[in-house]
Amino acid sequence: MSTIDSASQALVPEESRALVLEEFGTLPRLVERPVPAPRTGHTLVRTRAATVAHLDLNILDGQFGILPERPFVPGTQGSGTVLASAVHPEGALVRVRGEGLGLTRDGAWAEHLLVPDNAVEVMPEGTDPVLAAIYFSPVGTAFAAVHPIARVQPGERVLVTGASGAVGALVVQLAARAGAEVIGVVGRPAKLGQVPAPAKPVLAAELCAEVMGGPADVLIDTVGGAVLRDALTLVRPRGRAALLGYTAGRELTLDLADFFLADVTLLPVNMISRGKEVAPDVVRLLPDLASGELSLPHERYGIEELPEAVARLRTGAAVGRVVLDLG
Ligand SMILES: NC(=O)c1ccc[n+]([C@@H]2O[C@H](COP(=O)([O-])OP(=O)(O)OC[C@H]3O[C@@H](n4cnc5c(N)ncnc54)[C@H](OP(=O)(O)O)[C@@H]3O)[C@@H](O)[C@H]2O)c1
User: Fold this and answer.
1) Which ligand 1 atom is at minimum distance from the Cα of 144?
2) Is the pLDDT of residue 5 over 70?
3) What is the pLDDT of residues 236-289, one digit of tens each?
4) Which atom of ligand 1 is nearest to the CA of 297?
5) Domain count of the fold of the chain
6) By CB distance 3.0 to 4.6 Å, which of 12, 49, 101, 291 could disulfide with 133?
7) What three-state secondary structure class fits 49?
8) Distances (CA, A) of 300 to 29, 93, 289, 297
9) Which residue's alpha carbon is at the smallest distance from atom 40 of ligand 1?
10) Which protein residue's CA is at the shortest distance from atom 22 of ligand 1?
């Protein structure tokens, strides 16, 4: 551990590549820029991987409650190797997130980044850098939805929408581990084969109680919009529905008379408030993710392939997490 010394300074180039956003509603440009200068209370990281998530797209579009001054480097989460830090071991693989990363300060879509020491978490040795960058949000969200929020019980029938997505695929696997019978819904035929076993994959257009073998005890919806509206009708009275995404639409209209009659409890999943609570459980699942016992679907792109990565995420064509692999 050290502040930057002459030996590690030799490893740091003067300039490196970064994706810089100049105007909201456009895509960032790949530019060479000076590597950020070390600063007290901050850790200099050689980025290894960075997520491209729905939150990042909202920020690119200027559609989020907190927005950065431009130009800036997006990227709210990533991983990398510590180059210089007063508190984190040099050479350690770390996950970086929070403290306004990619929001109020430059983020992870760059080969080098300077982050507050508090935004850095050392990962267990041998963790895949891509896994380190992407695992926390989908695993934490899925865990929170299945366990503390929906409280899935053995033998229950659980309906999961967006079941080939990053969160949905983990919900499927964790609900199955909890002893549930799982039905995994996808919007496109091409994704039927991407629903993890042992769930029964079903196309949204063909979903009905008959295909499911009866109504669901629990719905875990990762998609929102019309998908949620339709899936809610398939939950039994006194069943539960955990809602965690709105990619397909932010609004849900309820006819109150029908809502009372249906008697389904709506449960919001909020990882901002649940993150700390589930963190120990998420870390305990890391070995299973590393060994492949639990799978976290993702697509990798080079830094110069950002436009393709964004397009795959925006159109819903991507299977699982989208991640920039920065080597
Ligand atoms: N509440 C929280 O605290 C919290 C935390 C983390 C994530 N989230 C949210 O959870 C959701 C799922 O996350 P994820 O990482 O699993 O997302 P994802 O993999 O990108 O998407 C999940 C599924 O949504 C469907 N989809 C994607 N784009 C669509 C579009 N434009 N129109 C209609 N359907 C579309 C796709 O399923 P099909 O192609 O099969 O339809 C996709 O597999 C996201 O909305 C994310 O923002 C919420």
Assistant:
1) 3
2) no
3) 999 999 999 998 999 999 999 999 999 999 999 999 899 999 999 999 999 999
4) 19
5) 2
6) 49
7) strand
8) 19, 19, 17, 10
9) 186
10) 165
Pocket residues: Cβ below 6 A from ligand 1: 54, 137-138, 141, 162, 164-168, 186-188, 191, 222-223, 244-248, 269-271, 313, 316, 318, 320
Say whether both 18 and 144 belong to one domain.
no
**What is the C-alpha to C-alpha distance for residues 279 and 109, in angstroms, rounded to an integer?**
24
CB 108 within 8 A of CB 102: yes
pLDDT of residue 66: 85
265 located within any domain:
yes
CB 104 within 8 A of CB 250: no
**Residue of 112, 161, 166, 110 lying closest to 137 (CA atoms):** 166
Range of the domain at 142: 137-273
Residue with CA at minimum distance from ligand 1 atom 19:
165
CA 183 – CA 200 distance, rounded (Å): 5
Decide if 288 is inside a domain: no
**Domain shared by 201 and 233, yes or no:** yes
What is the 222 CA–ligand 1 centroid distance (Å)? Answer: 6
The CB density around residue 290, as the number of other CB atoms within 10 Å, is 16
**By alpha-carbon position, which residue is closest to atom 45 of ligand 1?**
245
